[in-house]
Amino acid sequence: MRAFLAGLATALLLATPAISTVQAAEEPLKVCLDEDLPPLSAHHRGKPDTGFDVALAQTIADRLGRPLKIQWFESKLDEDSSPSLEANALLSDGRCSLVGGYALTKDSLVAPGVKTAKLPDFDGASRDDHRRRIPIGVLVPSAPYIYSPMTVVLGPKARDRKVAGIGDLAGLRIGIESGTLSDAILMTFDKGKLIDDITHLVPGRSDLLGEIERGEFDATLLDLRRFDAYRASHPDTKIAASGYYYPIGANRGYVALDSDKALLDAVNKTLSDLQSAGKIAELGQTAGLTYLAPREPIILGDVWLKILNR
Fold first, then answer.
1. Which CATH fold topology does 150-245 show?
2. What DSSP string runs through 169-200?
3. What is the pLDDT of residues 246-288, one digit of tens each?
């Protein structure tokens, strides 16, 4: 009898890892995505979820043998919002294990200087969720999977202008949104050389690309992703891409908490395999995204210092 019980105990111990593996495989891969960042990710009631990050997350989940669960959240454009703290709060509250489409910069990955943070508005949030402060951890990035630069976009009257650098915008009517990175780049270029050509618009209250389309401005500098989204929703647009990319841009990848490094290792291995097979570029093309492979530096340093030193 004693030998039987010993054998049974051994069998149960050997079976435990297998059971745990099955349970892990059945757990959804929970990924947080911005609900309004086309063509990276988009979630609108009554419409299918779309975007490059949606397709990539599904592909990774499939490769890991896990179902995918997306937690949609809204990122506000205001002075009080902090994308890094919002991502940290979502992860620390267990809303997801990964936040996708995350800009990999030194500032966005710095250890938080506070112990708690508020959650952003997310799909399914209650009134109490809006009031809660979440004890937060430390963010760790995955390998990057896409490079996001800024590009010069030209209006109908200037679409044939050759642009090899910011200085080639001199003499054009430039529209730019106040307080943005693009604003800082253009206003400080060559000690203010373009200031007299610039008209400022209020972010969120103006239609920058629409005004360029109507010929009110000749050019702007903005995130390439944003132009891709406009082009997808306006297939007959007369706005043209200049083909010029400002030399300071950020890679995008996933972030997780430093306590979830095993998951990041698995995700990094999958990203490497997909990148080698050309699958990530293919997903970008299908989503209507101008796909650019990640590049050095993997994590962008002090953006403002780089701009001022140019």
1. D-Maltodextrin-Binding Protein; domain 2 (3.40.190)
2. GTTS-EEEETTSHHHHHHHHGGGTTTGGGEEE
3. 999 999 999 999 999 999 999 999 999 999 999 999 999 999 9
Amino acid at 61: A
The pLDDT of residue 226: 96
pTM of the model: 0.88
DSSP 190-246: GGTTTGGGEEEE-TTTS-HHHHHHTTS-SEEEEEHHHHHHHHHH-TT---EEEEEE-
Burial of 257 (0-12, 13-18, 19+ CB in 10 A): buried
Domains 8-147+250-301 and 150-245 are alike in CATH topology: yes
The domain locations on the chain are 8-147+250-301, 150-245
Instruction: Give me the chain's average pLDDT, please.
Output: 90
pLDDT tens for residues 106-124?
999 999 999 999 999 999 9
Q: Which residues contact 163 (CB under 8 A, 6 or more apart)?
A: 152, 154, 169, 242, 243, 244
- Average of per-residue pLDDT across 52-62: 98
Long-range contacts, 182-186 (Cβ 8 Å, 24+): 182/150, 182/220, 182/221, 182/222, 184/304, 184/307, 185/150, 185/221, 185/246, 185/307, 186/221
Per-residue pLDDT, averaged over 38-64, amounts to 96
Q: For 8-147+250-301, which CATH superfamily applies?
A: Periplasmic binding protein-like II (3.40.190.10)
Q: CA–CA separation, 263 vs 258, rounded Å?
A: 10
